[in-house]
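We modelled the chain as a single entity of 90 amino acids. Its sequence is:
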Amino acid sequence: MNVDEIVRWVLSADRRLLLMRTIRNTRVVKASEVAQLTDRSIQNISRAIKECEERELVCCITPEKHTWKKYMLTDLGHVVLRELERHEVI
């Protein structure tokens, strides 16, 4: 999947776009923080994180923890974020 396809994929679900916006502003996030900042359920944000992790846009920086995991953008995630910014979506 190329970057344009991934950008369209992110845009196809609000939860993923909200996650990207929040990570852009805070760099490292927990699902509960994103949920609170975006007024979404933790389950909804956790799903977005899982989806983005599967596409290698975000990675867990505390994989040894079972709860309160922290996530940040990968190199590909930064590329996609720049494209979203370039198109003035974020």
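As a brief sanity check on the tokenised model: Residues 47 and 84 are 20 Å apart (CA to CA). The two ends are 21 Å apart (CA to CA).
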